[in-house]
Amino acid sequence: MNLQENDHNDSDASSTDDRDFSSSKLGSKEYWDSAYDKELENFKDIGDVGEVWFGEGSQNRIIRWLEKQDYIKKDYPVLDIGTGNGIMLIEMAKEGYTDLTGVDYSQPGVQLAQNITQSQKLLTDIVYQVKKTNSDIDSPSALKRTYKLCIDKGTFDAISLLESEFKSSREVYVRNVRRLTDTEEGYFIITSCNWTKEQLVNIFNSCFKLHAEIPTPTFKFGGQVGNKVTSLVFKPV
């Protein structure tokens, strides 16, 4: 999914300029197109849905957290940013969510999500769209509305691995997600394995404020306790 393309020049999204990890092919569209091509073939051949990003536990923690919040309704419009194989939305459909949209910049990824969803025989329709750039006036309308739940499970991590123009890509991503998130009742949920809670709060603080932290498994190393992934819920500023 690509939400980093924009021709505006707003103020910085964060004072965090540097990464403590290296760029990677995991940040490229070519990598994801190739990976989803293979997963699409595997699904057609043997029914394998492919990798669940951060594992099933991560998406289940998000869904369980949502269930505990009585102010979040099942008919809220949901956008899965960088939907990949669509498993996040499929599981939400099974839990009764009724307005589900997934976008990704990888055509094979969207095809995979559509194929898997069709095989599930769900009661709720899920809309999947390929979205390449925000300036494409002929593109589908998925990013021309706002959502009360915007979910990112690894997409910002992939943007963080871009080989060049990282800072501007990050800032545009923050602005675009803010534009997609309903001002009054919207929530942005992000799960990351590259960034800590403090870093994410700093990166998104120009457009969002921290609302909650979804507990994730911890580990202990050298006397220090840490998390393999960070999962945060933001509200628009």
From TrEMBL:
Residue ranges of domain Methyltransferase in the record: 72-208
Gene3D superfamilies (UniProt xref): Vaccinia Virus protein VP39 (3.40.50.150)
Gene Ontology CC, one term: cytoplasm
Pfam families: Methyltransf_31 (PF13847)
Biological-process GO terms, alphabetical: methylation
GO molecular function, one term: protein-lysine N-methyltransferase activity
Keyword Cytoplasm: yes
UniProt keyword annotations, A-Z: Cytoplasm, Methyltransferase, S-adenosyl-L-methionine, Transferase
Family the UniProt entry places it in: Belongs to the class I-like SAM-binding methyltransferase superfamily. EFM4 family.
Protein name: Protein-lysine N-methyltransferase LOTGIDRAFT_134815
Organism for this UniProt entry: Lottia gigantea (Giant owl limpet)
